[in-house]
Every structure is written in structure tokens, then in C-alpha cells.
Amino acid sequence: MIRTIDVHKSFNEQEVLKGVTTEFFPGKTNLIIGRSGAGKTVLLKILVGLVTPTTGDIFYGDVNFSQLNKKEMRAIRMKVGMLFQGSALFDSMSVEENIRFPLDMFTSMTWKEKAMQVDSCLERVSLGQVHKKYPSEISGGMQKRVGIARAIVLNPEYLFCDEPNSGLDPKTAIVIDELIRDITIDKNITTVINTHDMNSVMEIGDNIVLIHEGKLAWRGDKSQVLESTNDTLQQFIFASPFLQRLRAAALERSQEG
Amino acid sequence: MISRQLYHFGRYLMMMGTALARPERTYMYYKETTRQMNDIGIGSLVIVILISLFIGAVTAVQFSYQLDGTLVPLYYIGYIVRDSTIIELAPTITCLVLAGKVGSNMSSEIGGMRQKEHIDAMEIMGVNTAGYLVLPKIIAALVVIPLLVAIAAFVSVIGGYLAMVLTGSLSHNDYIMGVRSFFKDGNVTMMFVKAIVFAFILTSVSCYQGYYVKGGSIELGKASTNAVVFSDILILLADYLIASILT
Ligand SMILES: Nc1ncnc2c1ncn2[C@@H]1O[C@H](COP(=O)(O)OP(=O)(O)O)[C@@H](O)[C@H]1O
Ligand SMILES: [Mg+2]
Fold first, then answer.
1. What's domain A1-79+156-223's superfamily in CATH?
2. What pTM, to 2 d.p., does this model score?
3. What residues of A are in contact with residue B113 (Cβ under 8 Å)?
């Protein structure tokens, strides 16, 4: 489990996070949602230690992440996988080399064991014969899959995804969401996903954290979204008139039934 | 103004301190080092040869003009070309050129990785990115650039020969006699000291500029310009210091 306690972050004068206290659970797809610029990426980067909070603490289990030295932090990071918004695949390496990179760097596996691990990760993300292709030669959806494969190759306990379905068509986006959810359940890992995608919220939102104006505005799961009377949440989720009409219709029907 | 320079200097020292940590896996660093050696060495060979050929030729032509009508024997031209290239021109000009070629390349490669979150991705895996991205480049440069400088010095002497002997300004025997006169091996030592120091400056400064890049393509361009400008200034400063200390 990951806990954040009163996390603040300012850049120069701009206060992006104004005290966020929340929890993320193992075996669940935890979502951080909010408008563009709400500070989702900043919060995610604080969780993994790429950005240091101005004040506040992050706990991984009982370990206070913010008080670790560089070496201890690296040890925790061995248990962390992350999918970046732009996939962040190394363009000088092939797909296979990208996924193998953490194995090459941190394990003393034989060449054969590594090849098997790479194959099983590629299979896990439903990618076939793309081993020798370079990141620029595959589609955006495939890049995300490779990014996920690389993130899980060391069997992490924590998986972070920054907008995993941005830039993808709705269908591919859902497939990627389901893939992340299945991996989360299979391996019982703590997954934290940044998103502003409504489909993701309604499909895989086990624990949803809404960030608005630097603060935690709402927390709950997907089944509580429709009934919630929280204004900020309703404005965020049902942003378009079309969705507002859908919601009204759905509520009406549930009252009748 | 001064505090800005101090800030950069401090951050540079911190990056270098982290870069010198023990590698996670020596083989990966070794592989990256050989790739860099190839890039720096083979990639720069042609331009270094071309430039040194002309530098040797120009030095010879200039000195033969200045010595014209004096009592200094003409064979001195060979001697002067040899020593001025070994002591000063080969290391300095080669490294100034390499700062423009290799240095700007390194800073935009690392800077691009920073902007596309590749560095963040490596950090998350637990890689010491300052180490993995900087150390192999520095080691490769420390090995390869002195070799390039030695080649540059040798080629410059040939350049001087071609400019003198082919045009008939000086006989083959006179030039060779000059090249073989008054040889001091201390000068060669000085050449290698300069080459090593300059190589260190140009790679570490360029990596620094790339490693802390922010923003977008404009900043990336600026970083690569800064890499060249600061490397050049520091190389010339170091050149002066080494010359004062070693002579
Ligand atoms: N390194 C940084 N320096 C200055 N400002 C930043 C930095 N990172 C993010 N910000 C600011 O923080 C705010 C939130 O950004 P971000 O977390 O990327 O939003 P999003 O919720 O869309 O992911 C933005 O206004 C952005 O300008
Ligand atoms: Mg973002």
C-alpha cells in the first residue's frame, strides 16, 4: 500500500499541490483523475520520487520514501515499474533490447533466461513478433504495450502509468486499460494510473482520487461515481451536455426501477 | 551573475560525483563505452585529418614567409611546424573542433533523452543515470581523443611537408632534417596532458548541458550551443594554465 500524507508542491510561485492525503491499494487499479494541468503528473512523479515534494510524506508500506537516501531509494525502485505518457522507449534500441534493458542492468540471468522473460512479457501484452523492430517502426498502441512489458519485466510490486491511453483511439484505449487491470489482478500489484479518460474511470476505477485545484476533491470507486452528489466530480465526469443527458436518463431509470 | 556561475559549478560537481559511482553492471558500461569510442573516434577521424593537413600546411607557409630574408636557416621550418603543432595546434584546434562536433552531439543526445523522459524511465528502473549516460562517454573520450590528437600532430607535419616540398619552397631533405632537429619528448608529454584535460572538459561540460535540459526544442538547441561555447572557453583557459605550469 502507498500512502501520501499532506503532500504540497510548489514550482516557484505556483502552488500545484496544496496538501494531498490519500491511499493506493494493492491488487487494485488506483486512478488519479483531474483536468489537464491539475497536477496529476506531478503527484505521480512525487510518488515515484522523480519530484521531491515541498512538504509532506510518502509511505511505501511502513517505509517513509521521502527520508530514504539515494541508495535505499534505488532499492525500492527495483520494485517499481512505470509507463510514461510518451512511452519513453529508448529509440536507439529495438523492442527486445528495450524490454531486456532492466534485466541486463540488474540481473545476472543467462542470455536464455532473459530471452524467455522477454518473450513472456511480450506475450503478456499480446504482442507477437516485434522483437527486432525499433520504437519508431511500431504504432502508438504497440509502443504503450512495449512500455508496459518493459515496466513489468522485473516483476514489480508497484506499477505507475501516466495517461496510458492518451493519443489512442477509444477501442485501443480500452484494450490497454483492461490489460493493465488484468496484470494488476494477476500479479496482485499496486497500480496507480493517471487519467482524464471517462471510459477508464467507469471501467477500471477501483479506487478513484480526484484532484482539483491542488486538493483531493473526491475519493471513491466506479460504482459510487454516478450517485455522487459531489459537484466537482459531476462537473469533471459529465463535462459534455451529451453525458449530462445520459446521466439524467440513467438516474431516472434507476429511480423507476 | 557570479552566483549563477557558482550554481552551475556546484551542480556540475554533483553530477560528476554521482557519475563516478560504482557501475551497476560493468558489462553494460563497457558496451556503452565501446559504442561511444566508435562514435567519437571513427566518426571524427576524417574531419580531424582534413583540418590538421591544412593547419600543418598553413603553419609551414606562414613561417617560410616570416623567415624569408632572415638569417634563420630554412630547415627550421620543419622544426617549427613539428613543435607548434605538437605543443599547441594539434591538441587545441582538434579539441575545439571536437567540442563542436562531439560535444554538441552529446549534449543534444542526452538532452533529448531528458525531454522524452528516457532519463526518468531509467531512474525509475533504478539506474544511476548520471553514471550510465556520462561515465562511458568520458572514458571513451579520454582514450580516443588523445589518439586523435596524436594523429592530428602527425598529419600536420605531413601537411607542412606537402605545402613546402610539393611547391618547391624547400627540399625534401631540408624539411626532414628540420622535423628531426631539437626534439624534446617533454613536448609530447605536454600534448597528451593537454589532450586528456581538454577531452575531459569537452565531454563533461557537454554532458552537463544536456543532462539538465528543460523545456523543448529551443532549450535543446541552446544547450548544445552552450556545450560548445563553454567547452571552448574552458579549453582555452586550461590551455593557458597548462602552458604556464608545464613550460
Ligand atoms: N518541472 C516543472 N516546473 C514548473 N512547473 C511545473 C513543472 N511540472 C509541472 N509544472 C506545473 O504544474 C502544473 C501541473 O502539471 P501536470 O502535473 O503536468 O498536470 P497534469 O494533471 O495535466 O498531468 C502545470 O501548471 C505545470 O505548469
Ligand atoms: Mg500529465
1. P-loop containing nucleotide triphosphate hydrolases (3.40.50.300)
2. 0.90
3. 90
Asked which of A38-47, A198-207, B230-239 is least confident by mean pLDDT, the reply is: A198-207
pLDDT of residue A70: 79
- Tell if the CB–CB gap between A88 and B120 is shorter than 8 Å: yes
B107 in a domain, yes or no?
Answer: yes
In A, which residues are within 8 Å of B27 by CB distance?
A: 104
The torsion defined by the Cα of A236, A238, A242 and A246, in degrees rounded to 10, comes to 170
- Maximum distance among all alpha carbons in chain A? 64
For chain A, the structural domain boundaries read: 1-79+156-223, 92-155
Q: Is residue B19 part of a domain?
A: no
CA distance readout (Å), A237 to A23, A201, B223: 21, 9, 41
Domain assignment present for B125: yes
Q: What is the pLDDT of residues B161-180, one digit of tens each?
A: 999 999 988 899 999 999 99
- Residue B144 falls inside a structural domain: yes
Secondary structure element (H or E) that encloses residue A157, with its range = none
ipTM associated with this complex: 0.89
CB A164 within 8 A of CB A193: yes
Q: Is B216 on the interface with A (CB under 8 A)?
A: no
Mutate to test the pocket of ligand 1, among A9, A10, A20, A42 (most ligand atoms within 8 A of CB): A42
CA of A49 to the centre of ligand 1 (A): 15
At residue A45, the pLDDT reads 94
To which H or E segment does residue B19 belong?
helix B2-19
Query: Looking only at Cα atoms, what is the longest distance across chain B?
Result: 71
Range of the domain at B51: 46-246
What's at B79, amino acid-wise? Answer: Y
A101–B125 C-beta distance less than 8 A? yes
Q: Does B126 touch chain A (CB under 8 A)?
A: yes
State the total domains in chain B.
1
pLDDT tens readout for residues A115-159: 999 999 999 898 988 999 999 999 999 999 999 999 999 999 999
Could you tell me the distance, in angstroms and rounded to a whole number, from the CA of residue A31 to the centre of ligand 2?
13
Q: Which among A82, A88, A105 has the least Cβ separation from residue B28?
A: A105
Centre of ligand 1 to C-alpha A6, Å, is 18
